[in-house]
Task: inverse folding
């Protein structure tokens, strides 16, 4: 399992599954069980998902932002893990809890460490995103005062 | 420059400089210039600091939380970079903008990629922290409604 190999796998996963929203491609990348070890603000945090559970998370997460795109900043591969820093943007085209769709572009940044099995499938992640930054954009777009 | 070597250097830096607040130790770890490439919410974001500038950032950042402690979750070393995921806690003993000291323990999580020079000194970082999580704790401690 070379680091370069895992980084290419992860790039394919981000492009196909998260940028393009190819739900069926998920099966080529995921292990039978996927653990969300840490991900404050993600409704699935600390859950262990099977493939169908992950597909549902993907559908629900992408629905409000169907044109979303990750801009990978850096990948660090070490052992069974690849740490990814990223920028993200997506047009807010669907409602999310507390905020109706605005049609505005939202921007977010985050850092995610992905864990691989020896078979090079993804078995979980540990993630932090700048939730306060996106919350302030939502407040501003909704016409409210920023925090 | 082995990955294990850089990870040990980074662990020493976090323990001595950030946990223990040893301002003079900073000089053993930092390159002459240190760039904060990305760090939403950090007042020094996008600035290039010399050693005195970094020491001032350290003093100001640590002052409200003098007993702060990083709990390193995982280190991924790759080339000149080490990606670190972490939990953090500190007692809120000094005022911060908008929030007077409460004496309560605050908890934060984040992920930071540190960049090294060939001489194994730190030359910058790219970081995201869960600012919304800490903001909600501050609001709750201040007796206000959580966001």
Result:
């Amino acid at each position: 399992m070379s680091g370069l190999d895992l980084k290419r796998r992860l790039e394919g996963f981000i492009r196909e599954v998260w940028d393009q929203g190819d739900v069926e491609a998920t099966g080529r990348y995921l292990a039978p069980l996927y653990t969300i070890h840490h991900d404050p603000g993600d409704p699935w945090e600390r859950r262990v998902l099977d493939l169908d559970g992950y597909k549902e998370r993907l559908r629900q997460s992408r629905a409000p932002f169907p044109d979303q795109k990750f801009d990978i900043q850096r990948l660090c591969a070490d052992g069974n893990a690849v740490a990814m820093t990223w920028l993200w943007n997506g047009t807010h085209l669907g409602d999310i809890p507390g905020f109706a769709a605005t049609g505005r572009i939202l921007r977010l940044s985050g850092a995610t460490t992905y864990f691989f099995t020896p078979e090079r499938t993804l078995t979980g992640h540990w993630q932090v995103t700048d939730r306060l930054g996106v919350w302030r954009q939502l407040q501003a777009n909704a016409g409210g005062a920023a925090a």
Remarks:
- The radius of gyration of chain B is 15 Å.
- The longest strand of chain B covers residues 105-116.
- Chain B has a mean pLDDT of 95.
